[in-house]
Amino acid sequence: NNSVLSKSPNVMFVVRRNLLKHSINHIMNKKVLDRYLRLPLPCNKILATYVWIDGSGINMRCKDRVLDCVPYCPEAAPFWSFDGSSTGLATTTNSDTSLRPVAVYRDPFRADPHVLVLCDVLKGDSQEPAATNFRIFCNKLIEMHKAEEPWFGLEQEYTMLDVDGWGLGWPKGGGYPTVKYQYSYCGVGAKYMAGRDIVEAHERACLYAGCDFEGTNAEVTHASWEWQVGATVGIKAPDDLWMTRFIMNRLAEDYGVDITYHPKPFGMLHPGIGMHHNFSCVKMRSDGGYEFILECIKKLEKNHMKHMKVYSNEVWSNKMRLSGKFETAPFDKFSWGVANRGTSIRIQRETKAKGKGYLEDRRPGGDCDPYLVCGLLMETCLGGSSG
Ligand code: ADP
Ligand code: MN
Ligand code: MN
Ligand code: MN
Ligand code: MN
């Protein structure tokens, strides 16, 4: 439906007649815009785009604020507020909701001195975390386990869609690409690839912004891709992941392309979309770390269903993805293995050989909240209640 809370469209589950037929953004005359972009701003004014996660837990919002000087750290950026009732986070009669700056990035859309300000959302009346604010949960655990220096490496897979909800470059009228999946993974060639300009622009934009952007590759499904953030210490990993999501969604607007992180956008016959979480701490990275990794895996097994309930935005869509096919382990059966991509947790061959390293949690869906997953990995493996 068209409610403000409807998630990014995906072909299987959205009533397609409600979707747009065309995107207007990329056909607007950029030369006209350029006239205005060339107007110099007053020398004491910069533009700050405040960015936050809305009540859907996956879509992001932004709005601009003119500041008198560049905030080089989040503490220097003012608190702000917005209408929580229009973003699924509050009621109309109690709608003022707070934005607390938590990280500042360079703005790749406008360039220096303008900034993007990542915020977490607090309820306006109590300053408690809003319903979809899991950053506080994550940050508490990171503070608690500071001595263990948790590192995260996040692999964000995603799919590019036309605004009509169908895969970018997929045959119109419900057809499927005829080329085999194997050709698209890390592929080259016009027949196999769709949307590389966006990938290229995104990579540059994220590095410019200051995200710990690490790499990118094409995925097995036509028009699906992946980027990696990490390996980054502490809260910067999930912060950067959310900011790289924002940059992707905003950038794809310029191309009239919609981005979805849905775990199973084209149904059961096609591969799914995940976000592997690679995780390590001092104990895992030091001699004897392999034994500690095995201990952690035992704890993860005990908590399997607890994790599965929150490892994607909607449990059922990740359940579809974790079918036991397309390099996944079944949703309700925990497993692990060395160099095995059909398991819940994979240990790299090198980690076993060296006796230390990291583990890869392959279970989170593409639309998971990395604050929640990173938080739970620390809570389960390293202990401590978040309260
Ligand atoms: P694959 O697709 O084979 O799983 P990728 O290169 O896409 O491999 O992802 C590997 C991830 O592992 C990267 O995000 C990287 O940052 C992360 N990583 C590597 N070493 C560590 C480590 N010691 N702790 C946590 N994450 C790590
Ligand atoms: Mn207003
Ligand atoms: Mn990968
Ligand atoms: Mn992948
Ligand atoms: Mn992986």
TrEMBL record:
GS catalytic domain sequence ranges: 134-387
Localisation per UniProt entry: Cytoplasm
Catalytic activity, EC: 6.3.1.2
Domain GS beta-grasp residue range list: 44-126
A GO CC annotation given for this chain: cytoplasm
Root EC class: ligase
Annotated keywords: ATP-binding, Cytoplasm, Ligase, Nucleotide-binding
Homology family: Belongs to the glutamine synthetase family.
Name of the protein in its database record: glutamine synthetase
Source species of the chain: Arctia plantaginis (Wood tiger moth)
Phylogenetic placement of the source organism: Eukaryota, Metazoa, Ecdysozoa, Arthropoda, Hexapoda
